Amino acid sequence: MKYSEKILNTPSSFIRNILKVTDAPDVISFAGGLPNPISFPIEDLQKSIHCAIEENGAKLFQYSTTEGYLPLRQYIADKYKKDYGLNFNPEDILITTGSQQALQLISQVLVNKGEGIVMEEPGYLGAIQAFTLAEPSFYSVQLKEDGLNVEQLENTLKHNQHIKFIYLVPNFHNPTGITYTKDNREAIYEVIKKYDVVLIEDDPYGELRWSGEKIPYIGAGRLENSVLLGSFSKIVTPGMRIGYMATKNKELMNHVNTAKQATDLHTNIFSQMIIHKYLVNNDLRSHIEKIVQLYKTQAETMLNAIAKYFPTYVNYTKPDGGMFIWVTLPEGTSSLDLFYKAMEEKVAFVPGDPFYTNKSNVNTFRLNYTNTSPEIIEEGIKRLGNILYSLSSE
Ligand code: PMP
Questions:
Q1: Record's Pfam families (predicted)?
Q2: In the structure, which protein residues have their CB atom closer than 6 angstroms to any atom of ligand 1?
Q3: For the residues of 209-222, what is the DSSP string, one character each?
Q4: Using one digit for the tens of pLDDT, what is the confidence trace for 284-321?
Q5: What is the value of ipTM here, to two decimals?
Q6: In 3D, which of 28, 26, 32, 38 has the Cα closest to residue 305?
Q7: Mutational test site, ligand 1, from 97, 100, 242, 244, max ligand atoms within 8 Å of CB
């Protein structure tokens, strides 16, 4: 059988593939970006299921609107107002099957084959995968400690007319864990406002902050072509698959709506109604605070263990929130080689390669700390440290 070029050119997710191996009970896995299941509010969700069925009956099981459940869209609009002073109405919100679906829909709507997408380097591999289906040209802009390389962004936009959108994860970035500073965001805004491009700010981790102050978004509320993506995956549960897109651009919203009609008619209404019941009947703030305390302890344990067990030539990020630490080995070291050695010692992480659109055999890798207990984190990092020392003495 002959398959389409676009599927043949789309990489299968390295993480999803290795999760099958790293899921083995004797493997210490820092690989997947899984929220800790002890943070799932199962009892409260159980009550919400009963309550939602009692109140809505057959509506939970019927087809529904493509835009999403109106009370949930209203809740999200109100939350943006409360948290960020942003003036969204329910019609500016589209409920999607995870924010992952929004990535796929937006790229289908905006990009013709060969047109440009600006990605962070390194960037979220699920976005690279979703966008690749639209057969774009990728333009990478480097990430630094304080955010995006603004000069490189400006040069990229100046010299490439066919760029359609810029995709950024400014809070507790996946895979690096970094957060763009306020100054960096301002500088990005000053550049982007001069160009006819869409800015997508993807923010599934923003509420998982344990250090520092919340920082305003780059484009929301002031750039005409601004899109925000959000998700309940990391603050309630990922399996319910409830994410959302927020934009004031009505034309863009209409086209994305059409693409969604064609894709899945609507997001699972059962999940939408349950999550809405959960949100209005519980104190989300205090629930998130518990998750934040959990992840803070895990992150600190991992950072302390890295300081203790890794050779000093290894560089790594120190996140203020979120789920990831990004490790950089000396130039010329392959993190993929390290990965195979680590798997022999039953420790897993994600080698950097799949986070780049055009590089391989890189010297970087991602560690996740949210789904492992502090004792196991210590043991896993110790094993990785031993391997790193043994490599440097080879
Ligand atoms: N964006 C980023 C940056 C992510 O890390 C993830 C999840 N790993 C997603 C989007 C997708 O999240 P979901 O579809 O569960 O909302």
A1: Aminotran_1_2 (PF00155)
A2: 33, 98-100, 124, 126, 169, 174, 202, 204, 231, 233, 238, 243
A3: B-SS-----SSTTT
A4: 999 999 999 999 999 999 999 999 999 999 999 999 99
A5: 0.99
A6: 28
A7: 100
